[in-house]
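Take a look at the protein record below with the fold in mind.
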Amino acid sequence: MWNFFRRRHLIGRGLASPKKRRTVCENPVARVLSRGKAVRGAILGLFVLGLAGLVFTGQQQEPAKKFLLCLLIFLTALAQLWVNHPRAMRENSRLTLVLGVLFAQLAAIKLVLGQAAAGAFDLQLAPLLVPYAFAPLTLSVLLGGHYGMFAAVFCSLWGSLLVGRIDPVFLVISLITGFVAVFLTLQVRRRSRLVRAGIYVGAVTWVLAAAFGQIGPIIWEALHLSDWKMIGLQSLAAVGVGFGTAILVSGLLPALESLFHITTEISWVEMSDLNHPLLRRLSLEAPGTFHHSLAVANLAEAAAEKTGANPTICRVCSYFHDIGKLIKPEYFTENIRSGENPHDELTPTMSALIIISHVKEGVDLALKHKLIQEIRDAIQQHHGTSLVSYFYQRALQQQEDARLGGKILNVRPEDVPEVHEETFRYPGPKPTTKETAIVSLADSVESASRCLEHPSPQRISDLVEKIIRDRVEDGQLDVAPLTFADLQKIGKSFESTLVNMLHARVAYPNAKRPEEEPTTGRNRQALPAA
């Protein structure tokens, strides 16, 4: 309460800003729900109870034995998550997503089999109406291929125990269709690719079902005796369920992304649209920064492809990394017109403060426009704790000049203001992911390359090598998961891209028009215009 009145008093005296910077504060309750062990235990317990409900309902043979097998498979699944997917065991939201999707497919299998047993449709259609690829498709697109393979294996094992008897044919069809679904969705950048994967899954299901005799039977010796109506229905069911599963997953993805705070490759591609309000503002109010961001995106995307990082994330984060410059665009060199440098009227400390503030302003704009956490991290980390060296050196020079002048005017040395390096450093944190580190390096390299006179491949190579070496020596890449081999690949990629971006053009002489040719003397041959 006292801080509130003190702040109001300072605002009234003009010593504080009435605006408050947007911040993200984690709620203690949300923290417990996200990482609490009790909540994690409850999630696992609910999944086991759900398995028990699926096993003990309906006409099951030896349900206790099957439930024991399900429990053993469940322990194996937990061990698999613990070893290969530790993040799922740390974050309750991710664990809920994985187990929830698995349970949804198992419940769908139980529902199809129950409806077939109740006479809702022919029993011959039941194996072909099972959505084998639902969990593998969903988890592969949301979390990656490793989670999709996990879903394919364990949904097949549990599902084979729910069909009334342990069915090896069901197990094989489920495994193969799940693997095919994962393989076809390793790189999904368009929703049409997901639908195409569903069609292929349906075709694979049909081939496997026909091979194992679940379609037909077709009497090859007397084709007219075959039940072609049933064969048509079975074929339609096999292909249609695969296609329908892909459509369902495509429709569920936006809701699941929002609910579990996950960004898929599809969403990253959608966010790369330059018509975003912030990017449109950047192109109009800070065109120099906008073009700088486009160049950084090209550098970062090419480097990401060489190092195994995500190129789309690098491109999108590059677009937004400097949006904080919208607040004072005229103070940044790429937007300064010749002869109109506003820093000439400011002290180096004030200039550095304005330059550094674009990071906090960028985070503030990102929060206001509800940009996702990965983009906010790139905005906050792309300068790390690096030094604003130009204004720091300028401040040191002014300090030295003040000391020399003080000796003439008999000013005491302690009266000369000290220059602290911390004042000229960005607040950080340092880049923590491959993508953010690549964007950070691309930002520095692109900015420095603008100062190159007569850029040649050797000069570009020396510049890139120096910037990367300085970043490493300054400790800016200590947290990022980049190896020296990765840095070498990044440097080579930057050199190649910059050589293509900064290449010199052939100077063509101006060609005179026929009417401008002299009427006397020998006519010169005109060169074609470029």
